[in-house]
Amino acid sequence: MEVSVSWNGPSGMSFRAQTGSGHMVSMDGAPEGGGHNLAPRPMEMVLLGTGGCTAYDVVLILKRGREDVRGCDVTLKAERADTDPKVFTRIHFHFTVSGKNLKPAAVERAVSLSHDKYCSASIMLAKTAEITHSFEIVEG
């Protein structure tokens, strides 16, 4: 896997990134750090990627278990250390999974498997952060 990140120049703290699969992403810093708040912060991108990684796992595990999953949203709330390096110290994942007759045990299993075995991003972040998760099921 390879990505490239390029600074957009001396007028601020914005960067453009290109993924190995050819997609472009913008990132920017906070105004107090010289940014213009025009794009997500790099650490927000870390959380976004982690949310995508674990949601992907949960949907795939439920589908493979022949569950009638119709939607999966995950909200991540994180806390960071007060001093440098400002690593994540706590991250809570809340899943809202919708479908027809979803079994709570199947959803709990999918979430646990993602966090304990499959989601490389959340497993990596668990080296510095306390990871917790919860879920709710919405019929439909």
UniProtKB/TrEMBL annotation:
<dbReference type="Pfam" id="PF02566">
    <property type="entry name" value="OsmC"/>
</dbReference>
<dbReference type="InterPro" id="IPR015946">
    <property type="entry name" value="KH_dom-like_a/b"/>
</dbReference>
<dbReference type="InterPro" id="IPR036102">
    <property type="entry name" value="OsmC/Ohrsf"/>
</dbReference>
<dbReference type="InterPro" id="IPR003718">
    <property type="entry name" value="OsmC/Ohr_fam"/>
</dbReference>
<protein>
    <submittedName>
        <fullName>OsmC family protein</fullName>
    </submittedName>
</protein>
<feature type="region of interest" description="Disordered">
    <location>
        <begin position="18"/>
        <end position="38"/>
    </location>
</feature>
